[in-house]
Every structure is written in C-alpha cells, then in structure tokens.
C-alpha cells in the first residue's frame, strides 16, 4: 500500500516509472538491517535494555498475547512448500528480542521430560496426599482445565497446552519492564503453558530483576517450587531469590488469600509498580494482529 501511494505521488509530480514493490521491500529491509548493524557494532548502542531500569531492573511482568498468531495457511497459496521447521534461517537482527525457537523448545522439553507425572507435585515437606490440594492430585483436571484462582473469570496459562492445527504460531509471550520496554519475547506454537512462563522467569533472573509479575503467579509459583525446583536445583533461585506478585488489576479476580499474599501494594520494595505494563505493550501490538496472521514466516524473519 505504501509503495502504491508513493507511486501515485510520483506520477502527480510528473515523475514517470512504476515502483517495483519486490525491490522496494528488499531495499527497505536491507536499509533497516544496515541501520541496526551501525547502532549495534559501530556505535555499540544497547537498543533493548531500558535506560531508566539500568543493569538491575526492579520488575519483569510477563504474559502471552494470543492475537499475534499466524495462520498455518499463510504463505502456502503461492509457496506450498512453506512449512515451518525448528531450524529457521538466521534472522536479520539475530535473536535480539524474540528468542530462538530451538532454544525455547529445548528448555520446555527438558522440563516436560522430568515433571510430567502428578507424583512430582509432592514437595520436600509433603508426606501424604492428604496435605495436597485437590487440583494438585487430579492431574486430568489440571491438564484439561484452565488454571484459575477461585471463581476467577480470567483465563491464564496452565501446566500443559494443546496444539491448535489452524495456526502455525499461536501467539507471542512478552516480558516488559515497568517502563513498558520489551527486552525479550518468545513465539508460541501451542497454547500458553507454564513452561513458557518459566523461560521468561529464567530470563528475568538473568537480567537481575527482583520481582516477577504474572496473572496467576499464585498457581505458577506453587508449580515452580514443588515440581521444577525438585528436579532442577539450578532453578530454585527463581523462587528463593525473586518475589512473585500479581498485577494490580488481575488480583481483584483472585481469592482473598491471594489478594493478601501476592498484592503488589503490600509488597516491600515494589513501590507503586502496578504490574500491568505488559497490557500497555499489548495495546500497541494489537494493531499488527491482522497483518501478521496472513504473513508468511520467511517475510517476518528480522
């Protein structure tokens, strides 16, 4: 559309000759890549870290935006061989913001291989199933239902996820600082699961964040401590050295104990951080939803 508009403007001012859309698009991508390489390699600018947060950000708030999905039929009309594989071509900007699909899948599969049975839910202090919640015992209930707190109407991630054949990519998991800067994100190829959140949680730990905000942090924190930490000692610091909080708006849909235990207003050191910064980022990303779901994978590798 932009190229056609530019062509009409050129004709209006007496300049002849059509604009080759393919060459124009290629030139624009090469120019953006050149600008990025100058900023990154010559000027050595850090374009993803928040200058206000510095090297020790206070909080990372993470959630999935399911509207940024790609139809499985995208790109196959003209190129039937355009099938997604885990071995993708090198992105123009590397893995600057969106992490490697292979890296994410290896992380998630490593956890699934260890924590796939309900017996793993038993924590170090637990000696009988009587001490566990019903949700923790009934594994079928957990994997088939959205995990919510109390009578919450908010649908959030769960331990496992189902494949959606209609979509090649089912969304994007985004992490944001309190100033709405996105340092990293990951693609989803199934529904949102806690292993996606665990990957973002681990990245938050690497960035020296002190707090981790998530819509159902009450359920996720329990899963992380009783299942993941038991089999992966290297991840115990995710819950022992970081503090989980609920977003200020989402907490109203939780039960009273959660409103007290995970309330950001009653958490020392968090200040007036609301934890809804990722939702502000989503309000911007929603604008690209219609374009991206019809765009072929190879056209968005940046």
From TrEMBL:
<dbReference type="InterPro" id="IPR040521">
    <property type="entry name" value="KDZ"/>
</dbReference>
<dbReference type="Pfam" id="PF18758">
    <property type="entry name" value="KDZ"/>
</dbReference>
<protein>
    <recommendedName>
        <fullName>CxC3 like cysteine cluster domain-containing protein</fullName>
    </recommendedName>
</protein>
């Amino acid at each position: 559309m932009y190229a056609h508009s530019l062509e009409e403007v050129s004709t209006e001012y007496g300049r002849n000759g059509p604009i080759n859309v393919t060459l124009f698009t290629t030139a624009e991508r090469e120019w953006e890549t050149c600008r990025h390489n100058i900023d990154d390699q010559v000027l050595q600018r850090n374009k993803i870290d928040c200058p206000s947060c510095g090297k020790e950000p206070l909080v990372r708030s993470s959630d999935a935006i399911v509207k940024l999905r790609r139809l499985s039929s995208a790109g196959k009309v003209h190129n039937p061989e355009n099938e997604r594989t885990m071995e993708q071509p090198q992105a123009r900007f590397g893995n600057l913001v969106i992490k490697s699909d292979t890296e994410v899948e290896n992380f998630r599969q490593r956890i699934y291989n260890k924590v796939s049975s309900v017996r793993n839910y038993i924590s170090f202090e637990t000696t009988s199933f009587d001490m566990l919640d019903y949700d923790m015992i009934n594994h079928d209930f957990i994997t088939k239902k959205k995990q919510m707190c109390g009578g919450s109407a908010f649908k959030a991630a769960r331990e496992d996820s189902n494949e959606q054949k209609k979509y090649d990519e089912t969304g994007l998991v985004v992490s944001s600082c309190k100033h709405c800067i996105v340092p990293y994100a990951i693609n989803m190829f199934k529904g949102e699961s806690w292993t996606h959140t665990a990957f973002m949680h681990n990245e938050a730990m690497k960035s020296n964040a002190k707090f981790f905000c998530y819509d159902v942090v009450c359920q996720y924190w329990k899963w992380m401590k009783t299942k993941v930490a038991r089999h992966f000692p290297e991840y115990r610091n995710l819950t022992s050295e970081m503090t989980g909080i609920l977003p200020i708006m989402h907490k109203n849909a939780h039960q009273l104990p959660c409103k007290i235990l995970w309330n950001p207003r009653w958490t020392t050191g968090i200040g007036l951080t609301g934890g809804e910064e990722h939702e502000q980022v989503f309000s911007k990303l929603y604008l690209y939803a219609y374009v991206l779901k019809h765009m072929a994978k190879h056209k968005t590798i940046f």
